[in-house]
Amino acid sequence: VSRRWTDSPVATALGIDLPLIGAPLAGGPTTPALVAAVSEAGGLGVLGGGYSAPDRLREEIRAVRELTGRPFGVNLMVPQPYEVDPDAVAAAAELFQPYADELGLSRSPRPDRYAENFEDQLAVVLDEGVPVFGFTFGIPAEPAVRALRDAGTVLMGTATSVAEARALDAAGIDLVYAQGAEAGGHRGSFLAGDAEPGLVGLVALIPQVCDAVDRPVIASGGIMDGRGIAAALMLGASAAALGTAFMRCPEAGTNPAYRAALAAAEDTGTVLTRAFSGKPARGLRNRMTEELAGTELPPFPVTNALTRGLRGRAAELGRSDYLSLWAGQGAPMGRELPAAELVRRLAAETDAALGEVGPRDQP
Ligand SMILES: Cc1cc2nc3c(=O)[nH]c(=O)nc-3n(C[C@H](O)[C@H](O)[C@H](O)COP(=O)(O)O)c2cc1C
């Protein structure tokens, strides 16, 4: 073998030592401390900023910069058009009320808006000169892509199918973040359907995306250790992104009830659900996913906003039955380790799996 796995076009493009990415985890887990720790360890930490108000996003970016001088990324959710049907919103609010009652929440006023303003979030990313910008749920409009490129930002877009990868390529996006069906969290799909047959597993997705587009591919979904990283690289990916694997790190903002649920996870324990947000996402099965399975709910981000109070209160009370426990199918392989130690072990395991143990890894 003439080259080590670390000599990767993704590592070169991102200016990092290890082609290993801490996936963006919106909703709290990717704290500035976690993002910085992954970057400091030689990978790329990515802040999941999708739910952060612009001012907060700016603070988080600056907090990362206080902790590391290395490259890092920020990820946002590209808004898709959605309809707000007042009757459906009222019906959904009624549906969630019994759960809120159980948690002792008083009837909360309807949210005055359902999502943060994407343009304003993007303006912060541009203004702060973030090195890497990742996105999901779609592709930003051409002027935004151009502005980011002009600013020297490396762009990383999510694809769950070959058609989505082709769309990213055509839009001039530098890196394709291929998300397999195993992945925890929301499906990034914007052309593929949200359910079968749009659910392509990572082993099938990576080579097809690699064949379809001439861009470096980052694999994500179910990868928890060096075996998974090595497999993704063997299939043609140039880097791996791990989400669930980092959720039990002490630096992560994962709340205690969520951590306990992850520690008890089983391989068959996740489901694809719309219950909390209106958009399919993979998470650990619990009372909410079971009771709301098949229930019609308003689209993302409406339902997401409607359940925010409930989820926040559940986190405070440590009630995992009412939490969105986003997790990938590899959750049982998760380890409770400091992020730097986890990155170190992932790199050593990948070396071992690929039979590439260089001098730098000798004890
Ligand atoms: C809690 C959680 C939040 C996530 N938030 C985002 C997000 O904001 N943006 C995004 O592009 N992907 C998000 N993802 C998906 C990850 O980018 C990645 O595809 C996924 O974690 C990979 O699967 P794994 O968890 O099995 O490693 C999230 C995943 C989880 C588990």
Write the layout of secondary structure elements.
Layout lengths: L8 H6 L5 E3 L9 H9 L3 E5 L5 H14 L5 E5 L8 H17 L15 H10 L4 E5 L5 H9 L3 E6 L2 H9 L4 E5 L5 E2 L15 H11 L4 E4 L5 H9 L4 E4 L13 H8 L6 E4 L7 E4 L2 H5 L10 H5 L1 H10 L21 H16 L9
Parallel strand pairs: 1-2, 1-9, 2-3, 3-4, 4-5, 5-6, 6-8, 8-9
Antiparallel strand pairs: 7-11, 10-11
Helix pairs in contact: 2-3, 3-5, 9-14
Molecular structure report:
This protein is of the alpha/beta class. It is 38% helix and 13% strand. The strands form two sheets. Strands 1-2-3-4-5-6-8-9 form an eight-stranded parallel barrel, surrounded by six helices. The chain has a three-stranded antiparallel beta sheet with strand order 7-11-10, with no helix packed on it. The two termini are 22 Å apart. The mean pLDDT is 95. The structure holds flavin mononucleotide. Flavin mononucleotide is lined by residues 23-27, 29, 48, 50, 75, 134, 136, 158, 179, 182-185, 188, 220-223, 241-245, 326-328, 330.
Give the overall pLDDT as a whole number: 95
By DSSP, the count of extended strands is 11
> Strand fraction band?
5-15%
Strand order, largest beta sheet: 1-2-3-4-5-6-8-9
Largest sheet: 8 strands, parallel, barrel
| Structural class determined from secondary elements | alpha/beta
> How far apart lie the N and C ends?
22 Å
Query: What is the string of SSEs from the N terminus onward?
Result: HEHEHEHHEHEHEEHEHEHEEHHHH
Distinct ligand kinds: flavin mononucleotide
